[in-house]
Write a structure and sequence with these properties.
- The chain is an alpha/beta fold and 284 residues long.
- It contains 11 helices and 10 strands.
- The strands form 2 sheets. It has a 6-stranded parallel β-sheet with strand order 7-6-5-8-9-10, with helices on both faces. It has a 4-stranded parallel β-sheet with strand order 1-2-3-4, with helices on one face.
- Helix 2 crosses helix 3 and helix 5 packs across helix 9.
- The longest helix is centred in the last third of the chain and has 18 residues.
- The protein is globular, with a radius of gyration of 20 Å.
- The chain starts with a helix and ends with a helix.
- The model has no long low-confidence stretch (mean pLDDT 93).
Length: 284
Amino acid sequence: IFYYLRVKPKVVLNFNPKACIYSSIACRLLGIRFVNNISGLGRVRLGKGILGKLVFYLYKFTQNKARAVFFQNPDDLDTFIKTGLVQKNKAILLKGSGVDLSRFTPKESKNDGFVDFLLISRMIEDKGVFHFIDAAKLLNEKYSNVRFYLLGPLESETHSGISRDTIQEWENKKIVKYLGVSERVEDQIALMDCIVLPSFYGEGVPRVLLEGAAMAKPLITTDNIGCKETVEHGSTGFLCQPEDTKDLVSQMENIILMSHDDRLQMGHLGRQKIENEFDERLII
């Protein structure tokens, strides 16, 4: 509130769940116009449990006072309209945050006999990291030509965060290689055959999936809110059921058993989907 009193903005654009609540309250109190972008709901299940009920009423207090509310996937948009959290004439659907197609360009992986899978995310349970590791264990036992990688920041002190010791244990057992964090994720994506995100988190549209597909990599992700929008099952990648390791293994095996050329073709179809739907110039 004090910041807004000093800056005196004419309009505030709020992005991510906390800002869409707290900043919206400040804007209402000060009479400042605001626009919200609901980039997923995170771990919260609206109306479920004490936290879910609290968040529901905070959204109800704030969203209908916004000039417009952007949503990144149709499921969140429908939920907010059906529960009366936002008026239909204020709700606008965007295709995520988009992706920079001049930065994330197609890069073909080497035909070296190995199939490399990369999961990019914060290292938290909700992103499906444990399911990825369990799938890697099973596939390592069955195939000698597969490799698995993790890329993303540690959040061991947060809810469902995975510790560095746990990741080190996985590395010691040669299940996976942890690549740490990177300011140029495109350098790691370029080396991979497939990008995997078995998330059961309340996503908007995961940027890492857009970036992977933009670089012509097949995707494997869950039939989950926000994630499913990025994949044409069987064409640009594969969808699995959330929190279902067996199904994840099956979809990863589809990639392993494909020829290198077929994986490249699948990736290029994914690039076309991104160009047609998720180019950040279209979003803007």
